[in-house]
């Protein structure tokens, strides 16, 4: 029962995190950009070449990773799904936390919009909490009594 609750929490977290990546992450005047549009600006941040390619591949790979974790939960490979969820939550949560900490730069022309990062971070926290719940729940007791009688 506890494992099923953890899986449900993790699934909600996966969906919330992915939804957060499509919300505004950067604002420039009256224009907002989601996290994927921000990736197109990576050259301005000095992330050309291999570093930019790795950052883009990892971030774009989060959606398929979330889908894999959700499918594993559906097919009842809960512990493996939880491990994938931990990886997903760690990556998405770290990026979202860094963006959230930078905060909403009120009054500036260019700044971070907190809607996307905060939503992604909340989803990552739910994913990690659900995954930990799944991993710490036990299916059966492995405790044996002396003499071999259960």
Itemize the secondary structure elements and their pairings.
Elements: H1 2-21, E1 24-28, E2 31-34, H2 35-39, H3 49-60, H4 62-74, H5 78-102, E3 110-112, H6 115-136
Antiparallel strand pairs: 1-2, 1-3
Helix pairs in contact: 1-4, 1-5, 1-6, 4-5, 5-6
Structure keywords:
three-stranded antiparallel beta sheet, 65% helix, mainly alpha, 150 residues
Give an account of the 3D structure.
- Helix 1 crosses helix 5 (78-102).
- The chain has a 3-stranded antiparallel sheet with strand order 2-1-3.
- A hairpin with a 2-residue loop joins strand 1 (24-28) and strand 2.
- It has 6 helices and 3 strands, in the order αββααααβα.
- It has 150 residues and is mainly alpha-helical.
- It has one domain.
- It is 65% helix and 8% strand.
Concise synopsis of the structure shown:
The chain has helices at 2-21, 35-39, 49-60, 62-74, 78-102, 115-136, and strands at residues 24-28, 31-34, 110-112.
